[in-house]
Every structure is written in C-alpha cells, then in structure tokens.
Write a structure and sequence with these properties.
heterodimer, A: 376 residues, mainly beta, Methylamine Dehydrogenase, Chain H, 5-stranded mixed β-sheet, 5-stranded antiparallel β-sheet, 1 helix, disordered N terminus, B: 638 residues, 22-stranded antiparallel barrel, 36 strands
C-alpha cells in the first residue's frame, strides 16, 4: 500500500508567538500515529509522524529545520534537533509537527554549537549535549538557560564530543547519562582513546563520575527501562574490531559491558533497538566508502547473533538503512533509497523470540529518513 | 546587440561603456542577459558564473586567448580575473565558435585585455569605498616606434570586506544579532604587457606578431560560512600567463598561429580544528600550455575558419598537511574545428561549426582514461525589414574534471570511468534597432532550451558520507532573455532580463507519491538588471535595480530563497577635460535580510543566493578617472 499523506500538517504551521528564547505554535490535531520521523537529504529536512497503517504527516520546506537533523524522545516528549542551526523543536506527539522552538546557540562559539540530543528531567528542564562546544546546556521549562555544565575537562583536546543523553531515575536519584565519544578534534575526529559515559546529578548539576565504556565511538543510544543500549561502530572501515559492537549500560549500577561484538553481527553497528527479548541493529560492512547496511538481530541477554548480516532479512548495497525503532511488536527500519512512492520505512513483524518478517507494504516518507522514534 | 549572430548568441560588455562603476570582472558581466553571477560575500569574494542555468564548472573562461579553465580548475573564481581600463568581455551564451577552442557545456566567457592595436589612450581609474576598499586600474596603449604598438595595464585592489550581517544562529525572535564578517578581505595586484609587432613575410604579405604576458598575485582571506566560519583560512595565489600570436596573410585569407602557457600556484593555510575540516596547509601548482594554428578566409561563397589545437595540463599537489595529498593528474587534449559561414540567400546568413576533441587523462596512481567526442552546432540569421531573426541548434560537452575523475583522497571520491557531460541546446531570437518616435531602441529577445545528460553529481556514499562523482544527473532548462536599450535625448534605459524554468530530472520533490521533478538549485527563475540614466551637461545620474527570485536553496526545491531586490544609484561628473568623478551607492536601502518559511512561521536569514554566505548591506564607492585623450563626450572636448 502506498503511504497516504494526511493533509492536516502539510499547510504552514500556525504562526509563532515570539518572545524569550522559545517560540511556540498553536496546538494542532492529527490522527493517532505510531512513530515520529526525521528525514533529510542534507540540503533540506523534514519531520512528521507515521502510522503502521501507512498514514504519514509531514512538515517540509522550512529553512530552520536545517540540513542535519536528529530525533530525540524523552519522558514521552519528542524533539527535532536541527544540529546545524543550533535549534531544538518540540514535536507534536501525534502529528510530528514542530510546536516550540529553542535556540541553543552558545555565544562563545563563532559557528554552530551543534546540539545532539535532548533529555527531559522530572522538573521539565531540557538537557542538551553540544558536540562542537564542550558543554551540557540545561534549559528551564520557560526556555531560559538555567545551567551550563562545562565538559572541557573530560578530553585532553578540550572537547569530549558529547553525543547523546538520557535522564534516568536511579536508586541514587535522578541522573543524566551523557555519552562522550572523545574523538580527536584536531585530526579528523578519529577515535583513538576510550569513550566515556558521564553521570551527572540532575538536582545539583554536578558531574559525579565518568565510566569508561567497553566499546569505542558511541554512535547511537536506545533506552529500555534502566538500560542504555549503545551502538558502537568503532571505525566503520573495520568490521572486526574487538572494542566495537553493542554495549549494555546499566544505569542502576553504572556498570557496562560489550554484549554483542561486531565480528559476530557481521558489521559495524550504526543503530540499535532492543524490545523485550529481541535486539535489532543496523550494521555496515567494512567496504570503504560503501558500508553496505544490513538489519541484524541478537539476543540482548547472551549477546549472541540470531540473524547476522550474512542472513539478514533486509540488506542494501550502500549505507542506506537509517532510522530504527520498535513499536507494538513491529520493527521500523528507514531506507534512504527512493522507491516509486517515496523513501520507504520498512515494517517488519517480530515474532518471539526474535524472528522478523517484512510486511509487503512499506510506509513512505518525502525525504530520506535519518531517524524514527516512538513516543510511549 | 551588434554583430552577426548566425553562429550563436553572444553578448558583449565594454569596461568603458558600463553604466555602473565596476569593482571587478564579475560586475562587468553581471548585467549581461543569460548571465547570473553568484557572489559568496562582498566584492572580491569567491564568485561564480552561470550562463543560461548552467553550473559554474560548465562555463569555459578564456583570458587574452588563453584558457583559464581546465581539468584542474573547472569552476573559475571570477574574483581572480583581472580588470583593466578598456577591457572587453564577450559571453557566448551557448555556442562558441569552434576556433575559440573546445568550448564547454554552459557557455564561454572571453575576457580581452586592452589591445595594443586599439587607439592610443592612457586611462587611470582610482577608487575608495566601504569596507576598506581601495582600487586602482591603469591602462595605456601607445606607439612603440617602428610600427610596433604596446599596451600595458596594471590593476591593484584591497578590501577588508568586514561588513555586518544578520546572524541567524545568534538571533532569537525579538532579538536581532548582527555580527561582523571577519577574515573576508583580499589584496591583489595584476600586470599585463602586450606588444604588437608588424611583420613583413617574403612571398606572403603583411602580418603581425602579438605577444602578451600577464602576472597576478593575490592574497585571499576565506571566511567560511555563517554556520561554520573559518577565521584563519587564507589562500595565497599567483597566476602567470603568456601568449604569442602570429598573423600573416595567406592566399585569400589569414593564417594565424598561437601559442600559450599558463601557470597557477596556490597555497592554502588554515588551523587545526577548522570548520573547513580540510588541510591546514595545501600547496598546488597547475601548469598548462597549448597552441593552435588556423586559417580564415573566403572559399567560394563561404567564409571559413579552420583550426587545429592542442594542449597539455598538469596538476601537481605540493606539501599537504592535515589531509591526504590528492593525486597528481595530467590531461592532454587535441582538437580540430571548422567554422563556416555563407550567405545562402540575400538576407539569410547560415553558419555551422564543428569540432572533434580528444582528451587523455592520467593520474599518479596509474589510472588513465580518454575519450574522443564530436560537438557542433548550426544556425542562421535572417535580416528582415522589421527585425533580424536568428536560431541555432547543436550539442556541447564537458569532460570530467580531475577531482571528478580521481577524487582528492579526502571528502571526494572520483570515478575514472566517468563520461563527459553533454547537452543539446536550441535557441531562437530576434533583434532590432530602430527609432520609435524620438526614442532610439535596440533590443534582442531570445528563447532557449537545453537537455543535459550524464551530468556529474557528487552523491554521498558510505558511513562517512564522502561524495562520489556519478554520471546520474539529467536536467532540462528552458528560458528567455531580453536585452534592451532605449535612449531619448538625455535619458537612457538599459534592461537585461533572464527567465529560467529548470527541471532536475535526477531528483524528486520532497513529497510522498509519484516523483515530481524539482528545479535545479541556485538558479533564479527571474534575474533582472536595469539602469536608468539621465545626463545633464557634464553630469549624469543613474538609478539601478538588481532583482532575482525563484532560487531554490535545496536539492528538492522545497526551500526557496526569498526574492531579492537591490537598488543602486550613481552620479558621474566630468569636472575637467578627461577627468571624471563618480559616486556609486549599492544596496541603497541597506537590505540585509530575507524572510523564509520557518517551522513555526516566517524566519529571517541574511540575503544571498545561499544564506550561509551573506551579502553586504549598503556600500559606497568614490572614484576618479583620467583619460587622455579625453573621450568624445567629455566636458571641454574641442
């Protein structure tokens, strides 16, 4: 079935009411959706919602959506991060349309500060890690900068490259967990030292500890309860690195372990999603400048590969699979190759323990997907 | 709107005829129909040129008979072109004569410096203006004794171009922030000497040897984008050009032999951690040489010009720090061309041009590739009582550049098997020059259509998104051009208008469902340059407008650059015989932002074809010009 485009969100969204650091739009109504998406061809971008039935809503052609987006979900709120524009948009959870805008730009930075992710604390504050500035910015509910946490001490080059964040209620209280890639900013962002997980106390804003991660280059993070699943490709030109794969970080104990190795999965792990007893990941082969992607599955407890890349139910010739999310017993996988009706999001039914069957009908987006997330 | 155009539509811009004070070579060609000049900042910033919707790397540029574009540098920065008093630019909008050289897919710009055979003149132009601009141009043509003629020219300029611009990432609703563009300046000096020596060849007849040498040096600061400024990036470059042209009578025509050489050196310096993500140092040298021999004359009822030419080009990377050194590359090419023109019937002039070109490319990694390709076009011009009609059709091509063929071992991946880009173009138009009552009107109207295939597009590949050159591009361009002048007594109006409708047949709009083709990015649907001039005694005043609209900023055509209308004004006064003072004000109303569609409503961004590269607000230029002998219209002229 070809994806249908609902008309409710195609018109120009409601006008912003300016003032302060945040801009807002009037609430809109949309049919219920199953997931939100962000898409980009890296010259312009779009955001919206999709339903497993095929319905798609979208907002396209807006200059401030930028050309390098990311999608975040935290505490049942969804955010579109225009990384190259230093903007964060909150998305309507049904329509996927932007409703509020925050400017994250740091005045000390001449160019973009490069926000990466958003996490919501229990007090409603927004925590945003920056990639090009060694800072973790905390916005109050009103959108003002409530706190800026300096991260420069966590990498010898002065910038630890904070890439993702999750705020979790742990036995020790509410904590923010921030992945630090710790790449070499002066040498092509190479991964030449261990990556870390920073634990920050939300109430005080103080950094409590840094945990050395077992794998290198945390590229993506998926939260399942108290557990953070990290996709760690290491170097994409090598699919047999011992310090790369899927890492399981337990927020209740701040302990971590590399669960599945990339050599077992058949490629460098770009994205991971774990739901119930089934782990799914997008892996890329080591062919330089090709990095053909495959969907693989693994046992999240034992770490063993269930369906490695060699027997993947969904594989491409290039680095095409982007956007991975589990929803209602189905797995959504974005595909950047255009089909006749648009850019497909494949829907695969997951049967216990971890058997995937692709539905004949994909859901189509107007631009190549970069992220698919589910708002619980 | 002069000269026969049976071979193809061409426009001509003369430095002495400009309605505006010219800052650089780009501003000389900017008012021409079919031409869109894209500036990435103020004057002297990186500037490219598109003709009839072409890409900048599809435009061939020839300076003083020497090709400046080639495999190593297909997209010439117009800011590096020198401008001197008496310079003339010709733009072949699609089809260039075969004798000019291989030509290119997207038209040809020929820039001629002052000719030693022109009227003896001394010209000095000096100017100072906003953003620290200081400019000097000197040209001199004189007898050198013994029948020899000598043309010398010098030009120099500098500017800081530190204009303020609306900073979109620092601004919030209700709080505008303007930032200063830093590291955007330049300094340049150019010198040219051209000798014309009369020759008498035994058993042949009179002839001439013309030798031209050119040297340029330039220091350019590279500011980067608004989102990723590069405050420490700098490019130092030099260019040396030499040519010798021998012309002698031979039979019923003229034999012409030309040899040329070109060397360009550049050194890029940046700092570690720069937003450019490139090398911290890169030294490069491009060396090219070539020659041609041809004969032009009458054969029966036809005028023909046949020419064979050849060239060799070498790109030699030097020291590279902070990035992989790109491969050394060479290109050897040879071609033969024939232009034929004959009067088929009384008012009908028919022309045809054909070329056969072969390229052989090789790189230091042992990769080689080559191709032989014919191109050509035919056309006619019919002089009717009410107007002169002309039409042309033909095919053009562009061989892949070195970076497209071999990559740079960094962000760009080459493909040695790339095919040349090619296109079919047809155009037709009419021109007239007549009095309408008291108004003298000269106008040309033309329409054109181009179907381009095998366009080379860089496609992101792999996990790191490196761009690989691929022959997937196809495009269709349809457009119209108007070039008109009207004069009535002391009033004059000049208008140049280009309308474009483009279709990128290798992309789809950002919509679900069947694929609708978006427009090509960065091409204006409408581009107007107009000037109204009133002359009273020794003074003239000018009001001008430059307007563009319909520029798509992205690949899917979903983000449209807001229409931009910039006005300008100028005053010129002849204060003494041969001495003219002028004041030019550009962007008179200080337009610095445009309003785009934003996710929550309208948002403002800096003006510019790409908003990441803002254009300056209001600027002024005060100039003085001394010409000896004084022009015919100068005050006090006997």
């Amino acid at each position: 079935m070809i994806g249908r485009v609902a008309s409710c969100c195609l018109a120009v969204p409601a006008l912003a009411c300016g003032g302060g650091a945040a801009s807002h739009a009037a609430a809109s109504s949309c049919p219920a959706s199953d997931a939100l998406w962000a898409a980009s061809d890296y010259s312009s971008s779009a955001a919206g919602a999709l339903a497993l039935a095929g319905t798609v809503t979208s907002t396209t052609g807006r200059v401030d959506l930028g050309a390098d987006p990311a999608l975040s979900v935290s505490r049942n709120r969804a955010f579109y991060v225009a990384r190259d524009e230093d903007l964060v948009f909150e998305l309507d959870p049904d329509c996927g349309s932007p409703t509020t805008r925050w400017n994250i730009h740091q005045a000390s930075q001449a160019g973009t500060s490069d926000p990466q992710d958003v996490a919501v604390a229990s007090d409603g504050s927004l925590w945003v890690p920056l990639y090009d500035v060694p800072s973790l910015v905390v916005l109050s509910q009103e959108g003002d900068v409530a706190r800026t946490i300096d991260l420069s001490a966590y990498d010898g080059d002065g910038n630890p490259n904070a890439s993702a964040i999750a705020i979790v209620d742990t036995p020790a209280g509410e904590k923010a967990f921030v992945t630090l890639e710790r790449l070499d900013d002066q040498d092509g962002y190479k991964s030449e030292q261990p990556s870390w997980m920073l634990r920050v106390d939300v109430a005080s804003g103080s950094v409590e500890t840094n945990v050395v991660l077992a794998g290198r280059n945390p590229f993506g993070m998926d939260r399942e309860g108290d557990v953070l699943w990290l996709a760690e490709p290491g170097n994409f030109d090598d699919a047999a690195e011992p310090l790369a794969g899927v890492e399981r970080f337990d927020t209740s104990t701040s302990t971590t372990a590399l669960v599945a190795h990339e050599s077992d999965l058949g490629g460098s792990v770009a994205e991971v999603s774990v739901s119930g007893g089934c782990g799914a990941a997008v892996v890329a082969d080591a062919t330089t400048n090709v990095n053909a992607t495959s969907l693989v599955t693994f046992d999240p407890q034992a770490g063993t590969a269930i369906t490695p890349a060699a027997s993947s139910p969904l594989a491409t010739d290039g680095f095409d699979l982007e956007g991975l999310a589990s929803v209602g017993g189905a797995l959504l996988v974005g595909d950047r190759r255009r089909a006749s009706a648009g850019y497909p999001v494949h829907v695969l039914d997951a049967a216990p323990p971890c058997s995937l069957t692709e539905r004949p009908d994909a859901i189509f987006l107007p631009l190549p997907p970069v992220g698919v997330r589910v708002v619980q | 709107v002069r000269g026969d155009q049976a071979g193809g539509f061409a426009s001509r811009a003369d430095e002495r005829d400009s309605a505006r004070e010219l800052t650089d070579a780009a501003s000389l060609v900017e008012p021409l129909p079919g031409v869109h000049v894209r500036r990435f900042g103020g004057d002297d910033s990186f500037t490219t040129m598109s003709i009839r919707g072409s890409s900048s790397n599809e435009v061939a540029v020839v300076l003083a008979g020497v090709p400046l574009t080639g495999g190593a540098d297909p997209s010439l920065d117009l800011a590096t072109l020198p401008l001197w008093p008496g310079a003339v630019a010709r733009v072949y909008r699609s089809f260039a004569p075969a004798s000019v050289g291989p030509g290119c897919l997207g038209g040809t710009l020929v820039l001629d410096p002052p000719r030693p055979t022109s009227v003896p003149t001394t010209d000095v132009w000096a100017a100072a203006g906003s953003f620290g601009a200081a400019r000097l141009r000197v040209g001199d043509v004189r007898d050198a004794g013994g029948g020899a003629r000598l043309a010398t020219a010098v030009s120099a300029s500098r500017a800081s171009d530190d204009f303020s611009y609306f900073d979109p990432i620092a601004s919030s609703p209700g709080q505008d922030v303007y930032a200063l563009r830093t590291n955007a300046g330049h300094a340049a000096v150019n010198a040219l000497v051209s000798w014309a020596l009369p020759l008498r060849v035994i058993d042949a007849g009179d002839g001439a040897l013309t030798v031209t040498t050119l040297a340029q040096a330039r220091r350019q600061e590279l500011p980067g984008t608004v989102l990723g400024p590069t405050p420490f990036a700098r490019l130092a470059s030099d260019r040396e050009v030499a040519s010798a042209e021998l012309t002698i009578r031979a039979g019923s025509g003229t034999l012409n032999a030309r040899g040329w050489g070109r060397r360009e050196g550049s050194r890029l310096d940046d700092v570690e951690g720069s937003a450019a993500l490139g090398p911290t140092r890169a030294d490069e040298v491009i060396a090219a040489s070539g020659g041609s021999i041809g004969w032009r004359g009458r054969v029966g009822v036809a005028t023909i010009e046949g020419r064979i030419d050849g060239s060799a080009e070498q790109f030699s990377p030097g020291e590279y720090v902070g990035a992989a050194t790109p491969p050394e590359a060479k290109r050897t090419s040879a071609g033969a061309g024939l232009d034929v023109e004959w009067r088929a019937a009384g008012p009908v002039l028919v022309a045809a041009s054909g070329r056969l070109d072969g390229w052989s490319d090789s790189a230091s990694d042992g990769t080689t590739s080559g191709e032989v390709r014919p191109t050509g076009h035919a056309g006619f011009e019919a002089a009717l009582p009410f107007a002169t009609l002309a039409a042309h059709a033909g095919t053009t091509a562009r061989p892949p550049s070195f970076v497209e063929r071999y990559g740079d071992r960094g962000a760009f991946i080459g493909d040695p098997a790339l095919r040349p880009e090619s296109a079919w173009t047809v155009d037709a138009g009419a021109r007239t020059s007549r009095f309408v009552g008291p108004v003298r009107v000269a106008a040309q109207v033309a329409g054109f259509a181009t179907w381009a295939n095998d366009l080379i597009t860089f496609v992101p590949t792999g996990a790191y998104g490196r761009a690989k050159a691929t022959n997937i591009g196809r495009a269709r361009v349809v457009g119209a051009e108007v070039d008109a002048r009207a004069r009535a007594g002391p009033l004059e109006l000049r208008v140049s208008y280009t309308a474009l409708a483009t279709e990128n047949e290798s992309a789809c709009t950002a919509a679900v469902g069947a694929c609708d083709r978006p427009p090509l990015p960065a091409r204006p649907q409408s581009d107007v340059v107009a000037d109204a001039i009133a002359t009273v005694g020794p003074a003239s005043v000018r009001a001008g407008v430059d307007a563009v609209d319909g520029i798509s900023a992205d690949l899917t055509g979903s983000v449209v650059v807001p229409p931009r209308v910039l006005t300008s004004a100028g005053v010129r006064v002849d204060v003494a015989r041969g001495v003219r003072l002028a004041l030019d004000v550009r962007n008179l109303f200080d337009v610095r932002t445009g309003t785009y569609d934003g996710a929550l409503g309208p948002v403002r961004e800096p003006i510019g074809d790409y908003y990441e590269y803002p254009l300056p607000g209001r600027s002024m230029l005060v100039s003085a010009r001394f010409t000896e002998p004084a022009p015919a219209d100068s005050v006090g002229r006997p």
